[in-house]
Specification:
This protein is an all-alpha fold and 449 residues long. It contains 17 helices and no strands. It is globular and about 60 Å long.
Length: 449
């Protein structure tokens, strides 16, 4: 039976509805990990370091797609909840068009800046050349990468999460196949990895465009539209937390790499790269759940259904707590195996990676709550609170920890920075939930509904 945004959600129905975006994000992360395995084992250490250094810069640009995806979804799902389907489709079409145009502008504007940027963040010699080659190829697909990020949210709002997953699978398979061809078969190294990834992003952005242009059975389709500057602004404000959060995470990754180079040299960058690949997969579960539940929250907010809002909020807290515990245990148990897969060629690097992963993985106990808090307020069309949570969590607290903790704990202080920052962020989230509950009513107070 098809699950609709207007349904009453049990645990089973909520998990089934979010299963598509969860698998979608996991698969996206898995093919990124496969990308890293190909580069590390078949291209060599320098290309692997180069990609890990420059990748945060690429993600900063791609974050615009996440912004319009989250912010636009909040506007569109709320409009659907209010019963205005035609206007919702106009807003949807507008957001997609604006995102694509911005992708072209950003790609053209940054293409020639990638060498000085790579040099600024610490790349030198062969690592610098590989970083520039990789990023200049990748950035040519930037408009489609941004659309791919955008559609990850909108397929859920369209009540087609499984279709979104299938398009993600197509994109991932494209990446893996062309990695094998260009990295292993042709020996193109970083350039081969970039070509494979760029082609996969083209597939991930183009297929959804074709689907929504055609007559379809989803809640959303492309229609004639006019420029609603207020809606563009609203989508930007609502999605500002996702933009700031992704930019902040990328900047923090750059700072992590800088601190590691200062502390233990380039091996630290390689170890952190492995940890990030694992983090992509584990955190993808949280991201997928937040993507899945956000349109449900937005719809019930628009429909003024506080009872269902309370139901979804309570069940989400329990689901995230259990998931975070299981993920932390799994990451601790698999640290040795994961290090062996990526860096078996260097015993010292393997030991460093295993130690770092075991300390870093504690953050999974807290990450889900923090991500949900930011996503929840975005879905409620409260971009300010969402941005405060996201910016405080991903940048301010992270930077404080990454600069201070190594002074006392050395290398371990770098690895433990994220868990400490996430732990403090949970307190910030709790404060925001308490302060804003009276306005939205997502927690039933005694004697009230």
């Amino acid at each position: 039976m098809k699950i609709k945004l207007s349904d009453n959600f049990t645990y089973g129905r909520l998990l089934r509805f979010c299963l598509g975006p969860i698998f979608m994000m996991i698969f996206t992360s898995v093919y990124s990990v496969v990308d890293g395995i190909f580069v590390s084992n078949f291209a060599g250490e320098d290309p692997f370091k180069a990609i890990n250094l420059i990748f945060p810069v690429i993600m900063i640009l791609g974050a615009v797609g996440f912004m319009f995806g989250a912010g636009g979804t909040a506007v569109v799902s709320k409009t659907l909840g209010e019963g205005d389907k035609q206007r919702a489709n106009e807003y949807f079409t507008l957001v997609v068009a604006v995102t694509f145009v911005l992708g072209i502008v950003l790609a053209a504007g940054f293409f020639f800046l990638l060498r000085p940027i790579s040099s600024l963040i610490g790349a030198t010699g062969n690592v610098l050349n590989d970083a520039v080659t990789y990023s200049q190829i990748i950035i040519c697909a930037m408009p489609f990468f941004m659309l791919q990020n955008l559609f990850q949210s909108f397929f859920i709002t369209a009540e087609k999460p499984r279709l979104g997953f299938l398009f993600t699978v197509a994109s991932g398979i494209t990446n893996i196949v062309f990695d094998a061809i260009f990295i292993v078969g042709c020996g193109l190294g970083a350039a081969g990895a970039a070509i494979g990834t760029a082609l996969s992003q083209f597939v991930g952005g183009l297929l959804p465009l074709i689907y929504f242009f055609r007559k379809n059975s989803s809640l959303l389709k492309f229609v004639k539209f006019r420029i609603y500057w207020r809606i563009i602004g609203k989508a930007c404000v609502n999605g500002s937390s996702e933009l700031l959060g992704n930019i902040a995470m990328s900047l923090v990754s750059i700072i992590y790499n800088w601190q590691l180079i200062r502390t233990v040299g380039d091996d630290g960058v390689a170890a952190f790269g492995v940890i990030m690949y694992v983090q992509f997969v584990f955190v993808a579960i949280f991201i997928g759940y937040c993507l899945g539940v956000a349109p449900v929250v937005g719809y019930n907010f628009g429909a003024q259904n506080r009872t269902e809002l309370q139901n979804v909020f309570k069940k989400s807290m329990i689901i995230l707590a259990v998931t975070g515990f299981v993920m932390t245990v799994a990451a601790e148990a698999l640290a040795d195996v994961i290090a062996l897969i990526f860096v078996s060629y260097d015993d010292v690097l393997m030991q460093m990676t295993t130690r770092g992963m075991r300390l870093y993985s504690i953050c999974f106990l807290f990450s889900g709550f923090c991500m949900f808090c930011s996503s929840f307020f975005t879905a409620l069309n409260n971009g300010l609170v969402s941005a405060i949570v996201s910016f405080g969590r991903t940048l301010v607290l992270q930077l404080v920890c990454i600069f201070l903790l190594p002074l006392w704990l050395g290398l371990d202080g770098i690895w433990i920075s994220t868990p400490v920052a996430e732990g403090v962020s949970v307190v910030l989230c709790a404060v925001m939930f308490i302060v804003n509950n009276k306005r939205y009513g997502y927690v039933a107070l005694k004697g009230k509904k």
